[in-house]
Amino acid sequence: MSLTTDFISELIRAANEPEKLSPYEVSRLLDRSIDTIRDMREQTGIAGSHGIKDVLIDLRVASERARDLSAAEIRDAIIDAADVIRTLKIVLDGKDEL
């Protein structure tokens, strides 16, 4: 498995048990997700959407509010991060095949 696939798996495991995560762990996972998404967007040439709602903004807010989030909000934020990373991985894998 690649590092990206491993990270996606880590996110999914965390999302399945959000009540077991400390606010620090939630914030750390979301911050790593933000960095990963930025790096992958750069590799794909996909720019972030500055004028409209961008998932990175939501993830940053969730990271900063980790202490105040419910288990459902934690799960949703982590699942959103995993979904974006998975989608970008598919795009990058497709580019590698060309």
TrEMBL record:
Protein name: Uncharacterized protein
